[in-house]
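ok trying this again, last paste got cut off
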Amino acid sequence: MSDSKRNVYVFNGYGDRGGAFLNFQLGRICHKKFGSPLFMVRNLRKKRSLNETHPRFDYSFEFPEVHLDKMKEMVKPDDLFICNPTHSTKWFGLELPMKKLMYMQGINTYPVLDIFYDHYVSVSHFVQQHIEKIYNIKPQIISPFINHSIFQNKTPWKQRSNDLLILGYKGYARPVFQYLQQYYKEKYPTSYIQFKIVDGVSQKELSDLFNQHKYYLTLNPCEGFGLPPLEAMACGCAVVGFDSMGGRDYLYHEKNAYIVDYGDFEQLAEYLRIIELDPDIGESLVKEAIGTASHFSYSRFETEWTKYLEKHVYND
């Protein structure tokens, strides 16, 4: 199927967050499967050069980038605009005279949802249920994917560090970790447990880190889905911590991870103590975790989105 007359515009498609990465891939499906010309839309004056490599994610800047003002001059009624809820306060739903699709990747990055889009799709049951309860919109669920060409189990368990790896790229992870660390030391004063907190790494660097460690400690209170725990699981790195709510679609306590309720530092500290005294206890989770992660492939993501777009967008 080809629709070269319908342009597709992805807002902030070259951004450095997971939501931008997923929207870029969605736009790419529109181009690859339906032949639509694809443009990345920026709101800043600085323009990226084509053929550069994204500093965090594994793709190049292969599609032209236009400023938002230029896009508004170009749009036609049948064109498609793709965005995430973070930009709800820009009220594109009311302003733009074109078809609009929102990929719902979270609930806490906007004060109020722009309810004037034509299509809404959610990354998880958690996001779907929240949006339905608050805004009376029930989006279809299409889960994200992880890059299995990068996130692979390459290192035998016994060769990995016992230090607990933490990804601190989101601001609230650090204060939560600091509180947990203090709580743990007070509860177990003779503890020798070690943590390694990292930030600002690419996907390839993160995969290497997962393969160097037995455990990944996830402390984010709330995510729409949460890619890093799933990426850790694909690398054979056992996950311990909060499910971040969105992670409930793939984190199953004592089956493929050690998960506690958000804020339950007492229970989390107990699991950390068990791991400290027996660092190999989590090895039994890894096989199931790798199997879980395998279901979240790009092939599945592309297939589900192609079916959705055929039915709801490219249906005329």
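PB: full thing came through this time. The two ends are 12 Å apart (CA to CA).
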